[in-house]
Amino acid sequence: MDRDRILLTPGPLTTTLRTKLAMLKDWGSWDADFNAVTAQLRQRLLDIVHGHDTHTVVPLQGSGTFSVEAAVATVVPRDGHVLVLDNGAYCKRAAKLTQLMGRRLSVLPFGEQEPVSPAALEAKLETDASVTHVILIHCETGTGVLNPLAEVAAVCARRGKGLIVDAMSSFGALPIDAREITFDALIAASGKCLEGVPGMGFVFLRKTVLERCAGNSQSLAMDLFDQHQYMEKTGQWRFTPPTHVVVALAEAVQQFVDEGGQPARLARYTDNYRTLVDGMQRLGLVPFLDPAIQAPIIVTFHAPSHPAYDFKRFYAAAKARGFILYPGKLTEIETFRVGCIGAIGRNEIRQAVNAVAETLEELGIRAHD
Ligand SMILES: *Cc1c(COP(=O)(O)O)cnc(C)c1O
Question: pLDDT-derived band of residue 167, with 50, 70 and 90 as boundaries?
Fold first, then answer.
């Protein structure tokens, strides 16, 4: 059937027809019309975090990781010392890129089944005063755990440490208010909960911090200080912008506003999450995390223990029914993941659960009921 499959992944996500149609136009990167799209988009992104007084937002070409790397390179001085709070795969990625860029790195490890602990952070900072910056992954997409952003931010503010937040998979869905939470940098991207297409990230930077970031970055293309200066001066992106991605994101943000903004998005995703978990549990599939620490973004399920289970076959059979699932990211135990985000609602999730039921029957894992 010539129909797009539903993406139950952490990005790229299923997008609306309106968002896709916005890409059917060519734009000049230096043209005033396109500059106006960029300028309005930046204002609207700042609206979402209530950050106009304290922060600026700098967009950057590339996938989300490019923006994480750029944020660390721009905000952390070359002799800075970064502490990564690690409870999963995206935390490890942030640690690796920090180290590759030559910044001093420490890692505070936690279990993958638990949020990071603000008390453990406090204790670590007590014993090691040389830490200058802390990196927190807001929603650890590797498992779906929600980390305590407000509490971690409070510890960092009290101790005078810079905080860099990877809010890639939470931004737009979970509340983040720059008037209440102190952070130096917060990173998100076009192809996640704002439901744009992938291809650009954006970083909220504290104005008073950014002023002091000239020359920190060892990279030309990833220097957010330069990108910001150039954009403020000319209204243009410093190098070729992903024009179609930018206009698609602007269109997606308009729909985000029309839907009712972050609270409406969270309500829809929470409904998706509940519909998913209820349906899967009826099929005997068990979530990996305690619901109390689970974000309504992506759910890790234990793979069926049946000998006939094989992720590749499971994936292919679900795909044939129109749904794209996601592999697990845990090394110790066999899992798979299902996203709750994107331009989908309860109907699509119910259909996905039906597709999983049929898939389990086809594989001989579950009898027809
Ligand atoms: C999606 C995501 C990223 C970025 O991944 P890319 O593959 O570079 O887009 C970074 N951090 C988290 C927590 C994510 O969910």
Answer: very high
Q: How many CB atoms lie within 10 A of CB 244?
A: 16
Strand arrangement of the beta sheet that strand 298-302 belongs to: 298-302, 335-339, 326-327
Q: Where are the domains of the chain?
A: 6-11+260-363, 17-258
Task: Give CATH superfamily name and number for 6-11+260-363.
Answer: Aspartate Aminotransferase, domain 1 (3.90.1150.10)
The atom of ligand 1 lying closest to the CA of 167 is 13
Q: Which residue type occupies 205?
A: L
In DSSP terms, 299 is beta-bridged to 338
Is the CB of 171 inside a 6 Å radius of any atom of ligand 1?
A: no
Q: Is 146 in the pocket of ligand 1 (CB under 6 A)?
A: no
The closest residue, in CA terms, to atom 6 on ligand 1 is 64
The per-residue pLDDT for range 123-147, each reduced to its tens digit, is 999 999 999 999 999 999 999 999 9
Question: What are the φ and ψ backbone dihedral angles of 104, each rounded to 5 degrees?
Answer: -65, 135
CB 225 within 8 A of CB 213: yes
20 residue type, one letter: K
- For residue 339, give the nearest of 323, 355, 354 by alpha carbon: 323
Verify whether ligand 1 is closer than 6 Å to residue 67 (CB atom). Answer: no
Mutate to test the pocket of ligand 1, among 85, 112, 136, 166 (most ligand atoms within 8 A of CB): 166
DSSP-derived secondary structure for 279-335: HHHHTT--BSS-GGGB-TTEEEEEPP-STT--HHHHHHHHHHTTEE-EE---SSS-E
pLDDT of residue 330: 86
* 3-state secondary structure at position 60: strand
- Say how far apart CA 261 and CA 60 lie, in whole Å: 23
What does the alpha-carbon distance between residue 151 and residue 196 come to, in Å, rounded to a whole number? 30
In this structure, CATH architecture of domain 17-258: 3-Layer(aba) Sandwich (3.40)
0.90 exceeded by pTM: yes
